[in-house]
Here is the input.
Amino acid sequence: MTETAISSHDNPIFKRLKKLAESARARREARMTLLDGEHLLAAYLDAGGQPHTLVRAASFDAVSFEALAARCLQAKRIVLPDALFAALSPVATPTGMLVEAAWLAPPAIDVTPLVIVLEDIQDPGNIGSMLRTGAAAGVTLAVLSKGCHDPWSPKALRGGQGAQFVLPLISGVDIVEWLAGFEGESLALALAEDNSLYARKLAGSLALIVGNEGAGLSQAVCEAASATIRIPMPGRIESLNAAAALAVAVFEAARQRAV
Here is the structure.
C-alpha cells in the first residue's frame, strides 16, 4: 500500500488523529485510540487487532516501518514532517510512530473471578501500571470508576504495555452499585484497619479495591466492601502508593491460588 504525505494541520486526517490524542470523549465516541510505538503495535497485533492507520515521522526509519506495516495489510500509511508529528504525538518523547486503532474487547476469562476495582485513579501512568500488574497476575476483570482516567488514553496505553488488549475491563462504573452485585468477597485496601492482607484466604471469588492516589478510598466504597484490609509495613514509611499497594495484594492472591 502506498504512503500518503500530510504537511498541514488543517488536513482532516490529522485533525481526526489529534482529537484521538487529546480527547477522551472523541476516543469514547469512536471507540478508537492512538498507540505510541512499535511495542504497542506488536502487542495489539498479537492480541488479534488490526490497525486502521499507521503514522510515521519523516525521520523514522522507512525500512523498519515497512517491516511493521507488512503485518497490517489493510492499514492506511501516513508520513508527517517531524514538526507536525511532534504536534500530534500525545507523549513528551515520541517514538516516531503512531497507530490509529480500535479498542479491543478481550473475551471474559472463565476461571474463579479475581477482579481489581479502581476508584478515581487520576494518573494515566498509574492506570496503565495497575492494568499491567493485573494482567500479569492473572486478573479476570478490571473495574474502573467514573472518576478514573481514561484507560484508552495514549499515556495509559503506554503505561499498560498491552494490558488493555488482553485484560477485560469496564469503565465509568458506580463502584458501590457494582460491589452490591458482586458474588464474592470484596476487600478494600486502606491504612487504618488492623485486618492484615496476609491473614486472609484469597483463593475464592475476590475483588481487590484500591482508591485515589491522594484521598484513598471513599467511605461509601469502604462500607460497601466485605472488609477493609491493610498491607503490613514493618518499615518506617506509613503508606505505599496506589499502584504498589495493588501489586502487593494481587500477587498475594495469585500466590495463594497457585498453591
User: Anything to note?
Assistant: Residues 1 and 70 are 9 Å apart (CA to CA). The two ends are 52 Å apart (CA to CA). The chain is about 35% helix and 20% strand.
